[in-house]
Amino acid sequence: MSDIIPSKLVKLKVLAEVPRAEFCDAPKCDNPADTASRLSFIKKLRMGSKKPSAPAPVSNTIEKKTFNAAAWIRFVNAPTQPISFWLVYRDQRDEFAVMLDEAKLTAGSSTMLSGCVTIEAKGNIEYMKACCGGARDGELFSVEELYVQKERTESAATARKHTA
User: Fold this and answer.
1) Is the overall model pTM greater than 0.70, yes or no?
2) Which CATH architecture has domain 4-27+63-163?
């Protein structure tokens, strides 16, 4: 596991919000190309549960989730300090940050930062952001590519192969 620190201790610039589908275990449409299957899935989402709405139980379990992430960042002027790639997330405890990669640009003004990280989240993850550290105020940069994906377990991948 990587070092996870409270995000308040690090000055980060948000690159993008990570879509909830990447870190939540939400239902997925079996065959999005099939119109009937897609409409049935959307109907299920709109109907919701048939149980009366009650507050969701607070989960105190700690779940390990592994993520692969990569970002291709281009700077207008090459920075002199190292640049780092972070994932910031919020669970039931607080908001935390974990560094995936760090690099010092020696030649050129762009770099690819990537890594794999295992997060121990208490309860559900409320949100997740991909962030950049080390960029100074007023330093101009653009994100050319950004990729964050939850790693699937072997048992889940095997189960999909057997059902499909």
Assistant:
1) yes
2) Sandwich (2.60)
